[in-house]
Design goal:
9 strands
């Protein structure tokens, strides 16, 4: 009986020790990451992706297309909604060229950024190769943005060779 009492006492002591021990719990959480569309830029499709001076006669005066004009060129930008952007131009041609080697002078480039496809009333700023556009351009809530370009085509000489003159405008956009 004494042995049973000892074992009972030991069991009681173990139960008391177990009831005074700290409780241990565990929990879980989920790690998530959302991958958004990569930043992309391209000239708008069709003629919207060109600064369009139209057909000009030999001897015509200098002509300016503003970024807010219907004939302004447009770059389409896509990426993660609300992304802040740094926009720079890496190439603005000083001349437009025709395959025969003749040129027309280009100057006074201007640009503006909008989060919609409407450029009427956009605030134009002078642009040059290198420095970023001022302001705080950001993609829309749907991840879209538009850079509108204009410039001045110099006077056309009376004997200017006829043809379609072209030049390439290059843009670089980085998310901040």
């Amino acid at each position: 009986m004494r042995k049973l009492a000892s074992l009972s006492g030991l069991g009681l002591a173990l139960m008391l020790a177990a009831s005074t021990a700290s409780a241990q719990v565990s929990g879980n959480m989920t790690a998530t990451a959302t991958v958004g569309a990569a930043l992309a830029v391209s000239a708008a499709p069709g003629v919207a992706g060109q600064v369009r001076f139209g057909t000009l006669a030999q001897g015509a005066a200098a002509t300016t297309v503003l970024p807010s004009a219907a004939t302004a060129g447009r770059f389409d930008v896509t990426g993660i909604a609300g992304s802040a952007l740094s926009i720079t131009f890496t190439s603005l041609p000083a001349t437009l060229n025709v395959p025969a080697g003749n040129t027309l002078p280009m100057s006074a480039y201007q640009a503006c950024f909008t989060a919609t496809t409407v450029n009427a009333g956009c605030t134009a700023q002078a642009i040059t190769v290198g420095p970023a556009m001022t302001g705080a351009p950001s993609l829309s809530a749907t991840g879209l943005g538009y850079v509108w370009i204009g410039g001045t085509l110099g006077a056309i000489g009376a004997g200017q060779v006829t043809g379609t003159y072209t030049g390439t405008i290059t843009i670089q956009i980085v998310t901040l």
